[in-house]
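Protein chain data
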Amino acid sequence: MKRIVIIALLLLAVGAFIFVPLMKGGGATETSMAQFNFKGNIQTTFGSILPVEFKVPEGINKVELIYNDSVFQQWIAPKGNVKFPLAASYYGVGTKMLVLRSYFSDGTSLDDGHLVRVVSDITPVLSKASIVNSYPHNATNYTQGLEFNGDVLYEGTGDPGQQGKTVVGKVDLKSGNFLDAKNGLDHNYFGEGITIFGNELFQITWKNQKCFVYDKNTMQLLRENSYTGDGWGLCNDGKYLIMSDGTERIYFRDPKTFGVVKTIEVYDNMNPRVNLNELEYINNRIYANVYMTNTVLVIEPGTGRVLEEIDGSELEVQGKNGGEVMNGIAYHAASNKLYMTGKYWTKLFEVKINPIK
């Protein structure tokens, strides 16, 4: 069901980087406003300083350099050529808007804008997931979220057939079955990622723009939160909820309000990484299933850089058994054990991650 959405997102991502310079006000000419001394958009590498240069004609009261919607520098009544060293990595990797805004005496302003794409300076380490132990997994579970809270494993499922099969609750690791404390949603809701924050379990939905919040012990519904856009994966870092929407963007949200606190974009050393699905936060890193693949990305949460790329093909061979794609990552902190599974898979695996030599 997500495949059509993914194609549309990829087309949008490609289209975004062939953006044409922005000029507000309609009457802009090359002689009326400050303009960058380059054409088109720019790509740079994380950690690099971008030498920005622009030309200012007569009659401009003020010029602002705006990067990612923040004013980085301003000049009062500048003239001629101006140079500024832009720390383009300030907001991590990703595609950001760079705008030169000219202010005039009549209160109007004109913009010259370009996109700056910052790619990672790191080539991701290639690793593979190897099976240590296997456990039964309920083959009727379309796994969307998987997470340990202490010794208790929780799983959240989706509902591709719109038959009211979205369920979230505690799972017995040894049998793969749900225990008594669980909750289901009707056929109008397609469940996605889950995470436990304090005594509350959060469950997002794909297209409904709703997050359901339950008591983690009783699974009693406590409240609902709303958001804009798709919901795919969910985890938390102990301070914020961390959510994906199928694009390269990851959102950090306030657990009380569900409002967005900050956003990162996920890039390797060449491109954005999209289709980020189920998430898990492990030792200050975000682990993300890449939808429709056997790949798990390890992401630096402060910058969005992809540090490692894990191949889970061995797990698919042993666990898929007529199911669908790999999805589901759970970390048991006390034992330092990592578990993975997939949608409709018959097995859940304890895995070990080893670099590919």
User: Anything to note?
Assistant: Residues 4-30 have pLDDT under 50 and may be disordered.
